[in-house]
Amino acid sequence: MAKLPEILEREPLVDALFEVRFRDTSPIADILPGVLFQENGPKTKITRLPVAELPPDMRASDPSLRYAPVVRVELEKYLVSVGDRSVLINCKLPYPKWKQFKAAILDIVARIAKLGVAGNVERYSLKYVNLIQAPTIAEQVSKINMSICLGDVKVSDDHANVQVHHKEDGIIHILSVVVGAQANLADGQVIFGTIVDIDSIRELAPVDFASFEKSLEPGLQHLRQANKQKFFACLTAEAIQEMGPIYA
User: Fold this and answer.
1) Cα angle 11, 17, 20; round to 5
2) Is the pLDDT assigned to residue 32 strictly greater than 80?
3) Domain limits of the chain?
4) What percentage of residues in the chain have a pLDDT greater than 90?
5) Interstrand relation of 160-168 and 153-154 (parallel, antiparallel or unpaired)
6) CA 126, CA 26: separation in Å to the nearest integer?
7) What is the distance between the alpha carbons of residues 155 and 199, in angstroms, rounded to a whole number?
8) Coil, helix or strand for 35?
9) Mean pLDDT of 217-240
10) Do residues 235 and 196 make contact, with C-beta atoms less than 8 angstroms apart?
């Protein structure tokens, strides 16, 4: 395995997300927002999401809604979204780097464990979404380490949307590449490039939340390293160099 950069001077990341899912319905969405509000002060913002208007039985019976958040808590640097069977933690931009993000995940998970209502955990995951900038489709394709032929068409200056599910070392990686994407920045600037989205999932035999919390740190660290390896493997050496990699 090639040595991975510790830091990128020109960070392409647009979203970083941790999720934990429960086997059964839990009252966590009714309790955790109030706890976070009490512990983080009046600047904390709580928003009830549209899915919350649907009956609980409907949410539980529909696979597309079962893990959907029903309430969102906005903290200073993170968004915590809570559903009947899930908790999601998003970083606000700029990304605070892995050390700080991991500390926030472990802190919030520890708070949930103290509540004693979360139930059994069936999976947890880390998802990183990056936008690799380039003005033309051909330049975008040239930065991605992939070779695609479909029939007599070789992708070189074409829009493409590719998703691969790959299991390795007990982790399911969902690698998604979207060539020809664009994003609007907060200052109004429009940027173009390729989205590289790596979702790394570890499934568990259902385990009670207290036990999950106690053993999370090493598993989380391993999951991040595996996710990071898959991301950099998607890029050409030239694309990585353009980001200003700093190695330990």
Assistant:
1) 155
2) yes
3) 7-237
4) 80
5) unpaired
6) 22
7) 24
8) helix
9) 96
10) yes
Residue with tokens 């991991």: 102
**Mean of all residue pLDDT scores within the chain:** 93
Joined together, the tokens standing for residue 94 give: 């700029």
Span 4-27, pLDDT tens digits: 999 999 999 999 999 999 999 999
Q: Are 112 and 57 in contact (CB under 8 A)?
A: no
118 with 27: CB under 8 angstroms? no
Q: Which of 97, 127, 129 has the alpha carbon at shortest distance from 196?
A: 129
Q: What percent helix, strand, coil does the chain show, rounded to 5?
A: 30, 40, 30
Sheet of strand 120-133: strand arrangement: 45-48, 69-74, 78-83, 86-91, 13-22, 120-133, 190-208, 171-184, 160-168
Backbone conformation region of residue 229, classed left if phi is above 0, alpha if psi is from -120 to 50, else beta:
alpha
Segment 170-181 mean pLDDT: 96
Q: CA 39 to CA 34: how far, in whole Å?
A: 9
Number of H helices, E strands in the chain: 6, 13
User: What is the predicted pLDDT for the residue at 3?
Assistant: 86
